[in-house]
Amino acid sequence: LETLELCQGARARIISVCSQGSSLVWCEERPPLDAHSDMSKCAFRFCVCTRTLEVGEQGVRLGTIRIILHNSPEYQVLASPQHVFLLPAAASFATTSKFLLIWHPETAKLTITAPATGFVRSKTLHSSNESDFRKLLLGSVGLLSGLAPLDIHTSTVSNSGGLLLVSTKGAVNMVEPDGTQRHVFDLEGVALAHGSPVQLKTFGSILACLLAGVLYLVNQNSGRLLEKRILGMKEVHFLESPGDEDSIQLLTQTGIYSFSFSKPEDSNKPEPCLVEMVFEEACRYYQRRSLSGSKLTVEKLKKGGVFQAPVALAAILQHSLHQKQKPARGLQDTYAKLLSTMSLELQSYMSLELLKACVVCAPESEVESYCEELVEQEVSRVLHSDIDKDNLAYLNSVFASFPKAAWKATRSCLQLQQNGDGLLVARATPEVWKKVLGGPQQEEVGQNGVVPLFELICASFLRFKPKWLPSFVELTQQYVSISWSYSSKEGPEGRVPLYKRALGVLARKNKCSEADDEMELELLLCSKRPKAVLQALHLLIRLKQWQRVVEVAEKFSKLSPLLNKEIFTTLLAEFAQHRELDPYLDTLWPLCPAELTASDILTLVLQHLPRSQEDPVPFSSERNQLTVGLLKPLLQRVVQRPCVQDEMYSDALQSPTFPPPTPPREH
Fold first, then answer.
1. What is the b/e burial string over 208-246, where b = at least 16 CB atoms within 10 angstroms of the residue's CB?
2. What is the DSSP letter of 620?
3. Cys staple from 218: which of 36, 68, 207, 495, with CB 3.0 to 4.6 Å?
């Protein structure tokens, strides 16, 4: 219908092009003007551009060219509905073939990601000056240089907007638009040759893979192989079937064929995969506890007759789950008794499955409320089971995916609320408290982004109800003091104190503010630990909040004589250096410990006097100079105080004046 010139330069050559919305995105080669340029410059002779395509009454018109990336290596561009993936060509430099780029047109953001290693970095391109490829990588060269090159055999974009990648080892992975990667499926496990084609196509939630005349149908969400068919011919191509996600149209040399997905007749019947999951889980469980080196398989477990627990559970699920009338019919007597014991758990499972079905089928306006209910059930279920590393990782993903729902679920499980005095109270059972404070700790879960449950809950407090966090830490400390002895290494306080763990969560916040300083103070003070109180006191001194300094000193000096002495000597040293504490001396002097003498006080003051640059004079004009008059009330108070030795001998001094009788002498 119409021919348009896409590139402006006469020497430019298009390498790859895709259509994204109403725009065209392409990678073009711009040969250097100098024919004798070195290889490093020639490698970065490509440019990624975009241009709107406008269809009007007068015909088709191209908009102005916008450069996404210049001075770049060769890229293959693949478009999803909202993003453009930039894959490095096979002949690229070793460094540039270790990552791929994702262009977000709406926000003008470019994401660098090495999905297999979890490296993700995004940058918003505000002007064309920031579009230079080498400048873009300037802050990441050190990290990227140590990565392995991408292993890509085949790539395509799924209908959900993700990028499907097939490695040469046959692993199918999905790269999401945010740069993260998840594993979907493994093909036969045979290494793929460079020339062997692999075709990928998504139909709703089903991924179709075609390799060497074999058709694999895989559930994208769970990664389960739904069906495997050997086709009669090897040269087969997928056809587009818009609107029809229940069948696949295949183009072959002999014609066009339609392949329909098999559907279960009654969706209410229990899924066979559920029974399989029982045996798979039992395999893992018994294998971990097995002393022999032989591999335990599902087939051995079913036929062996040694392990009865998975067989019993599978029988109950097959015969009893989802049946409306007489669920125990056809079961052995022992299984029927077990069914009556498990009835509550089965009801809970069925309600959970029903809720999941409601989430899938619900309109968009009701999804949020269903998700909140689902998250609450899941958090409650995990809190009432053993929290191992897998359960902890699962809770981390729930809190990350549904933060608001997870916060509501936490409040519900711990029964957190304010009483009439405005104080936070929790009516959780001791078992739930032990799950919150126990479980795998940071040194056990490693550095893979998973944090313990206590830290997860603290992060939720910081996000949704920060003023409750100090009270929550205080509540947990009260529970710890009741449940574990102070020196117990099994308890949470035997490892890292709870207030320090909460401070660690506060330190991991992306943005710091004045409210964070206040939160740090509250967390230090709520612990009532001597070191934490002194740390809070020094923080208040650094912030020059003298009124609060004196209030904290007056409140916490009553906890112990040793802490009282530390607080008083700290404030006396501050008093010697400046005059900020002068208005509060009437409150400060009564805190003086009984064992401090006048000479101790004078020694401490002289040690902390500020050093003057000039020679000392009797009458200085400086207003911040310490005078004896300011110290006089304290010294008088110490001198007039009865001596400790006088108190020790007070009984003897108050005895009658005549001496006691002389004891009899022995010759």
1. bbbbeeebbbbebeeeeeeeeeebeeeebebeeeeeeee
2. -
3. 207
Question: What is each CA distance from 363 to 235, 351, 360, 612, in whole angstroms?
Answer: 42, 19, 9, 75
Tokens representing 609? 């006097």
* Listed residue (338, 276, 337, 332) closest to 302, CA to CA: 276
Dist CA 305 CA 314 (whole Å): 13
* Residues 60, 4 contacting (CB under 8 angstroms): yes
For 358, the enclosing helix (H) or strand (E) is helix 333-361
Greater confidence (329 vs 590) lies with: 590
pLDDT at 326: 45
> What token pair was written down for 69?
């990336």
Question: Do residues 76 and 84 make contact, with C-beta atoms less than 8 angstroms apart?
Answer: no
Give the global pTM: 0.50
Contact 118, 173 (CB under 8 A): no
Residues 6+ apart with CB under 8 A from 13: 7, 28, 29, 31
Contacts of 176 (CB under 8 A, 6+ apart): 162, 182
Distance in angstroms (rounded) separating the CA atoms of residues 171 and 70:
32
CB 449, CB 395: distance < 8 Å: no
pLDDT band at residue 643 using 50, 70 and 90 as cut-offs? low
Amino acid at position 501, single letter? R
330 φ/ψ sector (left φ>0, alpha ψ -120 to 50, else beta): left
Q: What is the three-class DSSP state of 515?
A: helix
Q: Which residues of 5-27 are buried (b: 16+ CB within 10 A; e: fewer)?
A: eebeeeebeebbebebeebbbbb
Residue 537 is predicted with a pLDDT of: 92
| pLDDT higher than 60, residue 562 | yes
